Amino acid sequence: MRAPGPAGEATAGLAPRMNTRLVMLIRLGYDIHFDVPSPVPIVALLSIHPSRRHDLRGPDGVAVDAGVETSEYVDAFGNICTRILAPAGLLRLSNVTTVLDSGDPDPVNPEAREVPVGELPHETLRYLLSSRFCEVDLLSAAAVELFGDAPRGWGRVQAICNWVHNKVTFSYPQARSTRTALDVFTERVGVCRDFQHLAVTFCRCLNIPARYATGYLGDIGVPPSPSPMDFSAWFEVYLEDRWWTFDARHNRPRIGRIVMARGRDAVDVALTTSFGPSTLTNFTVVTEEVLE
Amino acid sequence: MRAPGPAGEATAGLAPRMNTRLVMLIRLGYDIHFDVPSPVPIVALLSIHPSRRHDLRGPDGVAVDAGVETSEYVDAFGNICTRILAPAGLLRLSNVTTVLDSGDPDPVNPEAREVPVGELPHETLRYLLSSRFCEVDLLSAAAVELFGDAPRGWGRVQAICNWVHNKVTFSYPQARSTRTALDVFTERVGVCRDFQHLAVTFCRCLNIPARYATGYLGDIGVPPSPSPMDFSAWFEVYLEDRWWTFDARHNRPRIGRIVMARGRDAVDVALTTSFGPSTLTNFTVVTEEVLE
Amino acid sequence: MRAPGPAGEATAGLAPRMNTRLVMLIRLGYDIHFDVPSPVPIVALLSIHPSRRHDLRGPDGVAVDAGVETSEYVDAFGNICTRILAPAGLLRLSNVTTVLDSGDPDPVNPEAREVPVGELPHETLRYLLSSRFCEVDLLSAAAVELFGDAPRGWGRVQAICNWVHNKVTFSYPQARSTRTALDVFTERVGVCRDFQHLAVTFCRCLNIPARYATGYLGDIGVPPSPSPMDFSAWFEVYLEDRWWTFDARHNRPRIGRIVMARGRDAVDVALTTSFGPSTLTNFTVVTEEVLE
Amino acid sequence: MRAPGPAGEATAGLAPRMNTRLVMLIRLGYDIHFDVPSPVPIVALLSIHPSRRHDLRGPDGVAVDAGVETSEYVDAFGNICTRILAPAGLLRLSNVTTVLDSGDPDPVNPEAREVPVGELPHETLRYLLSSRFCEVDLLSAAAVELFGDAPRGWGRVQAICNWVHNKVTFSYPQARSTRTALDVFTERVGVCRDFQHLAVTFCRCLNIPARYATGYLGDIGVPPSPSPMDFSAWFEVYLEDRWWTFDARHNRPRIGRIVMARGRDAVDVALTTSFGPSTLTNFTVVTEEVLE
């Protein structure tokens, strides 16, 4: 872990550290086991996203036991997908690799302007639409009422994150795979993905392209976390001329996000989708700074 | 319109007419008006799909009044999308063109096998997932109970279409834009798109890739329809080695489907998506055989 | 109809006319026909509510054709229910009677205090709970956010009515029998009952007992209404020491409400509940002032 | 606990033991603690139902610490409700009493006929309607499809219980207070109340009056249960000329049910409803046979 001190403190502030770009190495990986009663196809989105492949300092890819068939493809969102034909028995998916990171917290740019829909790049438009967990049609009126007076652009997205962060209570035991943004709005409880789904939906309601992202997020520069390490979800919005990272759960810039996959919502980037019965029996994720 | 007779009768049967391939010319188009209170960006999916472009016998494209800015792009599903910056006032989108068609009804192949998920082409996999109007997660148990005993492959898809066709009542007045497949399952009422959403969802629940399609469908060889001409929705499933057309509303092979767009569900292929207020004031669709 | 003039104008204001109590006679009734394919039991809540029975100036009761069996009972909410064993064929339910009314608009009392839950009469407590169309559990967070700062008591209920009245658009064509308060909140469209369901739910969320009511409401003192006469829905809240009438659809005091039934929501006071197939073929409602 | 043996075995069978009526004494009670941040009104439905008061062999009533105000009333369903004005601090609700029971398992009568709606007693009719957790309107089509061919009467209710028991998986960790019958139908997971809500809804869809019940259910004559003792939920249906107990979770006759409250669904009979913040800190339930 990064030694506590200036870097750790910086993560809590909102000012980007433009001039003090550090470089850090992050070792990350996972070890996921399934009990598979009979052969089943599985699709995993567990590789580092191609946009970060140039930062890889080791091989990447989903390792399986000898004899298990796998193949890779890139989906319509640009994610690397691994197809696995899991035989009956124990299926083990694992990887450990090292990634170079700037060590900077998520960039913050309160000046980033909102782009009128008519000027948005073509490829951002699909992130304005409704998806399984993001009912833009059902939450538009509420979004306009809640955030219609917020300053357009960065400030509006930040207002959305503040709202979701303050109104929704984090609760692992109450996680459920069918919870949609509307459910989060009514139940006010959820895990990482639920926070992001609601924030993503509000952004789309206000014509700001927003996409859901999964990946690694170390608790670097942060006091020991009570929960075991897990993958994390955050989201990205298109402002000014690029995508920016936001995180309605933590709601402050963080160091060391390594993206695996992006999509409309959690459906598109499920860590694993099993097309038949399988039982998760182990789930270990590691992400830590390598001190050279 | 095609003269009634053998061809008309053939559409009601299930046997593809492999040896009697006719050729017909279809003239089709639309004239859609919006009242736009203040400038608004609109995305229209009204062009003939690229897969049918070789059949075009006239120019295609969304015509607008002089001075209205438009541009085209191809979305992640391969559809031609027209972006329009509608100025305040009357917006008129129109087109008339001619398309060559085989004149054959939708192919029927009761022998078409179901492809195990592990052997499906990569690009079909996204059509197994949940989407805004197709809650695969919520309807899987019901799908297995209803269709788990149907023969796999073509027969299972046909069983799904029969069920949806018989259980859901068509009702224009009860159309609503937020109705999902689960809503169709509980309410048992809907329009074209609702029939297809429920059938698509059931197929996906059973690991059969299914995608939603929109386009022209003339009432060719069919007695005069009481309702004014409209675009139509149907769906396609991947069996054996290709996509096949199904239509849970009409539930029989039809002549003269000209596809405009395909996607996960109606969200992806909305005829027009308006990113701000606009009121539909005219909607005319034409599709008819050109008798040379 | 009451002659236009001062009385008509008074209905738009908020001041109760305590000193000018007029007396008016209202003739009201209905003629409802069903086509019944095979014998079916029906329960109708079409009688004047017992709380207004002393105002009746004629006989009341659901008239049916000779030979049709009926019986009456009072339900757990105090409503008169008529059970009908409809034989196959045409079922006609009708009535015409005369009711004496004060001619005053709904009383308005901005000073009416909110009663702490601990001091509410026992029999009001059930009107704090969730019901089929009023999901108190799902809308509580939103209710507190929207109305938590409004003055307690009358002002808070009025704030709720103002909000619902302004945010929801009335639309007969978009009526649907399964729409809940949450659906109204997300769709922002509805008919009479939908307005009241959302307002009732918000009240309950804020610990104000609220019950749903149906009855006659003439367009007395109001310019000719474009839609045919119908029954109306409103709601009542318990403040200070009694129940008060509110109406989130019209959102102003009205003259000549004659209550038929009260309950938790529309489920409890459906005009007719048919326990088997039947088709509504005629629906006529009359309510008009008798000028002596 | 009752010694294992004939009585224990009998509970697994379906034959009522008409001739071997035993008498047993059951000691039961609870100790429930809340942490109350500021004074809050609470309504508790924790008393033995009046229909069992003649079986009480000790005093009943909700005991609270000295100085806490309480009062009792009977609600519209005939349940004893205790109103409590909880002061800030620890609130403790407790009771221990003794009840005489026949020792017989729930009566089983496969001959019990279904009563046509037209002949049902008035007071049973409200148990045919939709309620917050029982969406009769949304599940009617499915109910008819699933159970429309089952023999009418007892056999149909039993078919419903079998289906729910077999299709829904019990899971304490996945409990959630907002889950409706439709949610149970789609998610196929739940706790006691969820099983009963779905079964109740199916019964009502088929015009069989069904009401939800809560109370004590000892694991008498049953191998040690892994979960700590809790209250239980079951349901009752009206057949022939009376209400009969069914239990879609356990799905077999049980000994020693002592009913506390009945209603349309869990909303009406919540053990405690707190009209403001309070945190459950202890929950202990006891029910055991007293061996004299």
Task: Describe what this molecule looks like in 3D.
- The structure is a homotetramer of 292-residue chains.
- The first copy, chain A, has helices at 6-12, 136-147, 154-167, 181-187, 192-205; strands at residues 24-36, 40-44, 69-74, 80-86, 89-101, 169-170, 189-190, 210-217, 232-239, 242-246, 257-263, 272-274, 279-290.
- By secondary structure, chain A is an alpha+beta fold.
- The termini of chain A are close together.
- Chain A is built from 5 helices and 13 strands.
- Chain B binds chain C through residues 173-174, 176, 178, 186-187, and chain C through 173-174, 176, 178, 186-187.
Describe the structure using short key phrases.
4-stranded antiparallel β-sheet, homotetramer, 18% helix, 292 residues, alpha+beta
Class by SSE composition of chain A: alpha+beta
Count of discrete alpha- or pi-helical segments spanning 4 or more residues of chain A:
5
Average residue pLDDT of chain A: 90
- Weakly predicted, low-confidence segments of chain A: 1-20
**Shape field of chain A:** globular
Widest sheet of chain A: strand order? Answer: 3-4-2-12
Task: Please specify the SSE layout and strand pairing.
The structure is a homotetramer of 292-residue chains.
Chain A: H1 6-12, E1 24-36, E2 40-44, E3 69-74, E4 80-86, E5 89-101, H2 136-147, H3 154-167, E6 169-170, H4 181-187, E7 189-190, H5 192-205, E8 210-217, E9 232-239, E10 242-246, E11 257-263, E12 272-274, E13 279-290
Parallel strand pairs in A: 6-7
Antiparallel strand pairs in A: 1-5, 1-13, 2-4, 2-12, 3-4, 8-9, 8-11, 9-10
Helix pairs in contact in A: 2-5, 3-5, 4-5
